[in-house]
Structures are given as C-alpha cells and as structure tokens.
C-alpha cells in the first residue's frame, strides 16, 4: 500500500495510475477502522482497479464540546487492516494540508452547505456538522477524483447530503451507499462504540432492537407515526438512553406520509456520554 500525506504527491501518483488506464474507487474515513469500514473497501475493490482510502479526523465537522480531541486515532493498526483487505493507496493529510488558512474562524472558510436535508435530525443537535462534513468530502473528492466513492448507510443523513452535493455541484463521481455492518448482537459498528463502558455496551443493542420494533409496527400497518415515535422513544428511555430523536420519515427525509411504500426509521441517542446513531429501512406492501 502506498501512503501519502501531501495532496500534490497523491495527485501525481493517481495521475500516473489514471494515465495507465486504472480506475479509482475512494473510501473516505476518520480512521479507527472496523469491519464496517473494511466492507466499504472490499466493495470498492469490486468497482475499480485501484482503491484509495483516506484517514482524516476532520475538525470542522465536530462542534464545541464534542469528542474531536478524544476521537480514537489508531493509524498503525488501521494501516495493517487496510493492507489485509487490499487497499492500494492511503491518504493521511494534516490539518494544514486540508485547511491551508486554518480552522480558527470557520466563518471565514469556503464551505459547502446543503440546506434542507442538513437542517433536521443530526443537523439540529449538531449545528455546523453537515457543513463540515460536506466541505471536507467535496475537498477529498476534488483531490482524489475517483469514479466511485463509497459511504455507509449507517450515516444515512450524511449519505443523502453527499448525494445532493454531488448532484448539485456536478461532481463526476458515482456515490455508493453500503449497508450497515453490525456486531453479532445487532449494534451498528462505530468507532465511538469503544467509548461505551461494559454495562453501556450491554444495553446498546437496544437501539437497533427498538428501530426493528418500530419497523414491525409500520409493517403491521400502523400509520400513527407520532404515537409510534413516542412509544419507541420511551422504550429507549427505559433502556438508559437519552434520546435526541427517533423519527419515521420517507427515504428522502421528508415527513412520513400515509400510504408510502417505503419508510425509514432513524434514531440518535446518548448512552452515557456516547452518541449512537442508527437507522432501519422499512419496505411496505
Ligand atoms: P467514519 O470513519 O465514521 O467517518 O466513517 C467512514 C465511512 O464508513 C462513512 O461512510 C460511514 O458511513 C461508514 N461506516 C461507519 N460505520 C459503518 C458501519 N457499521 N457499516 C457500514 N459503513 C459504516
């Protein structure tokens, strides 16, 4: 695996590969890689002859008081995992490389904003998060210029934000959403799971179990969405979660409508100091 931390040297290398007729698939990450990330890399392998992975903990998508400083940074282990699944190129830029004018005053930075989709769910409780994520993904797509980029469906709202910016900014890349990779007990894999105490870890699968319970209510034909959301929330509260939201929506993230053929149930909740998110797609007859 070739590793670069400078944009210019990465571009030169990828330019040569493209000149040799290779195609590029790209997986952006913040590192501390788990099987979910590695699944994105495996799927990327099927799509292109060269797989590029980036590891960059992007400061501008973290709010004040969030876990930017504590976010797990495990570069050597990540390298080994990426080698084991056959990634070809690793990009590990510094903050100065990505933000040459610093991030001291975010209001002064050129940025990408995707209104509408970003303004609800995680966007309401994490102001500025999706601007930070959309901006860094746009930068990384411009740097790598892949034919395809892969993102997890676990971060469903983020996936929609990225699909929208790619469409509206006419970026020549195919965005691919990959299903959520889970632990055996159903907990969605996340770098943040390692913050959980053993007691919290035992409770954490109840997030997905509650989403599945809500899905079953919808499959049974219930359309009293607000009532179902409240029942789901109280199940989470009984399981020690502090709920940010549990929402039944259309897959476009517009409000759920009676008679919809498919819906998505999304939730974000804190278990202790750890924010967990998950979602579940529901197909109705
Ligand atoms: P992160 O390092 O958390 O920024 O995640 C990098 C990419 O991996 C994002 O596209 C995530 O949606 C995706 N991802 C994270 N967890 C999972 C998972 N459990 N299953 C599938 N994809 C995931």
In short:
By secondary structure, this protein is of the alpha/beta class. It is 38% helix and 20% strand. It has a six-stranded parallel beta sheet with strand order 1-4-3-2-5-6, sandwiched between helices. The chain has a three-stranded antiparallel beta sheet with strand order 7-8-9, covered by helices on one side.
CATH structural architecture of the largest domain? 3-Layer(aba) Sandwich
Number of strands: 9
The average pLDDT is 97
Reported by name, the CATH topology of the largest domain is Rossmann fold
Q: Which CATH class of the largest domain?
A: Alpha Beta
How many separate domains?
A: 2
Structural class: alpha/beta
Radius of gyration: 19 Å
Put simply, the count of helices is 10
CATH homologous superfamily assignment of the largest domain: HUPs
Note the run of SSEs as H and E: EHEHEHEHHHEHEHHHEEE
Side-by-side strand order of the widest sheet? 1-4-3-2-5-6
């Amino acid at each position: 695996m070739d590793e670069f931390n400078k944009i210019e040297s990465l571009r030169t290398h990828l330019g040569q590969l493209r000149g040799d007729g290779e195609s590029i698939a790209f997986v952006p990450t913040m590192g501390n890689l788990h099987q979910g990330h590695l699944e994105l890399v495996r799927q990327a392998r099927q799509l292109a002859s060269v797989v590029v992975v980036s590891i960059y903990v992007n400061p501008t998508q973290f709010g004040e008081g969030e876990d930017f400083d504590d976010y797990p940074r495990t570069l050597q282990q990540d390298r080994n995992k990426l080698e084991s699944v056959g990634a070809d190129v690793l990009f590990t830029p510094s903050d100065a490389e990505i933000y040459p004018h610093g991030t001291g005053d975010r209001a002064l930075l050129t940025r990408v904003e995707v209104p509408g989709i970003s303004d609800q769910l995680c966007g309401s409780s994490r102001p500025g998060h999706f601007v930070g994520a959309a901006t860094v993904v746009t930068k990384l797509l411009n740097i790598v210029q892949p034919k395809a980029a892969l993102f997890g469906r676990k971060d469903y709202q983020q996936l929609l934000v990225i699909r929208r910016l790619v469409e509206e900014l006419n970026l020549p890349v195919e965005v691919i959403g990959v299903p959520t990779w889970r632990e055996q007990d159903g907990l969605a894999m996340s770098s943040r799971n390692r913050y959980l105490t053993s007691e919290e870890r035992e409770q954490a699968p109840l997030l997905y179990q509650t989403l599945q319970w809500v899905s079953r209510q919808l499959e049974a034909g219930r359309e009293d969405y607000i009532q179902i959301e409240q029942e789901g929330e109280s199940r989470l509260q009984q399981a020690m979660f502090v709920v940010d939201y549990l929402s039944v929506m259309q897959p476009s993230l517009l409000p759920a409508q009676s008679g919809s053929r498919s819906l998505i149930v999304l939730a974000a909740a804190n278990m202790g100091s750890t924010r967990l998110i998950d979602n579940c797609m529901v197909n109705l007859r």
